[in-house]
Design a protein that fits this description.
Length: 1108
Amino acid sequence: SFTLLAAHSLYSGTHLKDEPSNLDEMPLMMSEEGFENDESDYQTLPRARVNQRPRGLGWFLLGGWKVLCGSCCDCLARCCRRRKELKARTVWLGCPEKCEEKYPKNAIKNQKYNIFTFVPGVLYQQFKFFLNLYFLVVACSQFVPSLKIGYLYTYWAPLGFVLAVTIMREAVDEVRRYQRDKEMNSQLYSKLTVRGEREICLPKPPHPPSQETNQRIPADMIFLRTSEKNGSCFIRTDQLDGETDWKLKVAVGCTQRLPAVGDLFSISAYVYAQRPQLDIHSFEGNFTREDADPQVHESLSIENTLWASTVVASGTVIGVVIYTGKETRSVLNTSYAKNKVGLLDLELNRLTKALFLAQVVLSVVMVAVQGFVGPWFRNLFRFVVLFSYIIPISLRVNLDMGKSAYGWMIMKDENIPGTVVRTSTIPEELGRLVYLLTDKTGTLTQNEMVFKRLHLGTVSYGTDTMDEIQNHIVQSYAQVTSQPSNSGPSGSTLPRKPQTSGPKVRKSVSSRIHEAVKAIALCHNVTPVYESHAAVNGETESAEADQDFSDDNRTYQASSPDEVELVRWTQSVGLTLVNRDLASLQLRTPSGQILSFLILQIFPFTSESKRMGIIVREESTGEITFYMKGADVAMASIVQYNDWLEEECGNMAREGLRTLVVAKKSLSEEQYQDFENRYNQAKLSIHDRGLKVAAVVESLEREMELLCLTGVEDQLQADVRPTLELLRNAGIKIWMLTGDKLETATCIAKSSHLVSRNQDIHVFKPVSFRGEAHLELNAFRRKHDCALVISGDSLEVCLRYYEHEFVELACQCPAVVCCRCSPTQKAQIVTLLQQHTANRTCAIGDGGNDVSMIQAADCGIGIEGKEGKQASLAADFSITQFKHIGRLLMVHGRNSYKRSAALGQFVMHRGMIISAMQAVFSSVFYFASVPLYQGFLMVGYATMYTMFPVFSLVLDQDVKPEMALLYPELYKDLTKGRSLSFKTFLIWVLISVYQGGILMYGALLLFESEFVHVVAISFTALILTELLMVALTVRTWHWLMVVAEFFSLGCYLASLAFLNEYFDLSFITTWPFLWKVSAITLVSCLPLYIIKYLKRKFSPPSYSKLSS
């Protein structure tokens, strides 16, 4: 039995077998390693250049053991796991016994653990960090009597608390995942059997499951039949490719024509499907019916497929399952996000290792001064345990709680509504960014198209002259209807007559406009959808001319917003698309007449061909016309010679317009029949089908008549210009990575002020060989302070041979624009910047094609846009508008980093000061390994006595948010990492040693007769010192900080009454105790306050100058 599966299932084991790379033989390269990019897998990143390091004992101790253990585990897993080769398969309709292929399980399983692996798995994730592993070893050592120091709960209680919180959090997440999976896996589907339909939640090949409207498709299927009369349906693919536009899918003709659904079981038919692969935009297969005479063969393509995780948007569909589980397109394309660790966490981890080294050195010194007498090794370990508070276990807890607090603040900020923090572990990364890599369409622009320009070669129409076009269209069809011999739909023949009499005769402007608008209204994949009428009536016969096609009720659906805008524009000038099905479409003229056209063939747009075409037959005249539109680079060689196309395309691109070239070709009946035979033959071939089909279509694409050039504008997002200027002033280098063409990308870069007006732009010439790349790089090296514009193809050549040199030059540019980038290249550029610059990168995008870039970056930001939510869901942070990124980085990123840096160092200081006191105490008392404070004093010190004031540092801020946005230059300081460095860390170490020494020596100098008084005086002075140090560290007071200070002090004073074991109540209420504690506290804190005052007066930080 087979259960369901969704795009985000976490599977491992079955991978596509790598196809050999098709790269040319490369000459000697300048870098050590070339790219081994597998072209069959667009998610594989090129292998970056790695500097081989010598592997010795140092390498092994510093992390090599992890690498070796990981390699051994991977090797073991590969040996135990049987690799399954993915094969093409034949699926018989309703005959499971004939299916030879075994299908993988189809259940969604997003859980990380099962009931047996949960506890070991969570513990491994925790103890793989040095900090937690260290505390586990120290806590375990307390079970050895000779190493025991104090009470067990002083070590196990904090560790147990940390683990309990982690395990509970993971358990809650795991239960939620299980519930979500269970909900998806228990969704019911109708399964067709010989005995009729029955409800199941496990669609199983080859029984055809039936899908209702708004129901998720559970597995990859071939579309056999639909309730819609026209044999097609719409599906939503936003969860698969990130696009929100509905896609039109077509049922297999043979099965759609069957009289009843039950007849699917009475025929002998099978589907041949290619082996599972990554590409969601292509499919090759055949449908064969054996019991017909002659046998029926139909070629299957992408339009006959229903991929898993898409949603049925109209009607009911019946399909036969061909791929399940790990073999579905959605799972094969699932890229698993790397586990991101913030730079601050890595820096703190390095500091904890340095502290551990210091702890060991201090313990060795203590034993060495003793003279290594007696069981010195045991004493050494006891000293290591005594000084274990140098590395505070509360560091991880405080930082994690701080990160959660920052995430809550970001989501509650009213100035950036709708912002969602999806990865709560890296908010500090927002304050360390050097490179911002942004998509163009939908990110910098709104992905809302507006028709701006129609160019006919000799005359151009803009937004202010569209009424002229409308008048021409009205007149054109009015002349036709006035002809008594012609019926309405034949109006299109009149303007074409001059051409038939002689090709050199110049057409009138009116007829050329008429031809151009008609071509734009016919050549597209747009379908009008009527919310109520179409759903009720369903029928789209040409006789429905009298039906009320309400303009208010009509919406257009297409795979591209450009297409929809072009059809909307033809409606605005008088020629309206009112109906469309698989075989025909109808246009309405300004006078209300309906023109009907039969769709003979349609050639969809692909990223390779960069054009789409349609062959239509006008019903009234029988004329066959081939219309085509596409990018200028693709169409220039197809259309007849002209002297204006290239120049006007450049002009429009400089205005920021997206251009499309429209052309046509009239076909005779014989020409079309010859083409159709060759085309159908090519479509049935199993090998190289794509190439053969393209070759047949290209035979038509010759000497086409150029009709017009259209220009559509993609409007900029709100406040893009000031936001980019803010980021540039903050020292962030912005790279724009887009799939759009060079001219449009350059224009948007200028209009958005990504490149300033007076800045030079160096357009990297197209290169395809190493020598060309070498020359062009040398030319680029001679330019200074200019923006770089480069295409994806040239970029690939440069990175293949001169990776290091190219990245070095590009990083010096104030702005870089990469156009014609594939999703893989976007991720590759992010990875290159991380490896070559060691700076933090941020990627921002809004579509499914930006997901790989977002996941590769140190910090990924997704925008909920018109292209769907895929980028938003995959990102670490989700925003609703591009302008929100300014406040997210300048205010929240800056505050998160500075607060975490202060919090982390203060928690370390809290541990170091008590360790310094312990060192002084042990050295005074003959280097005895005896603890200074025991039991509850140590637990209380790290928790209720100091926890709240220290944690209140997450509310601290040096400048107000308005000031941080007004002076983005403040952000530059953060990228240097000065808030948390070895310098600041050493300052805190010195403060801790000074204060620990003063507190301990002061208490010993002023101690009376009994040792208990030393504990009372020094511990009280320690608590007061910590509270005063928090006050010294705070830059802007918040009322909660004051509450935390007084609450902690109150807790300590209240607990004195119960701690008779440690304090003599009769002594601590005396005057001598009070003045001694006050004197020691004053000596430990007053010098630091004086130093801070002098530093602020004579060398003030940049933020204090602004606030003053």
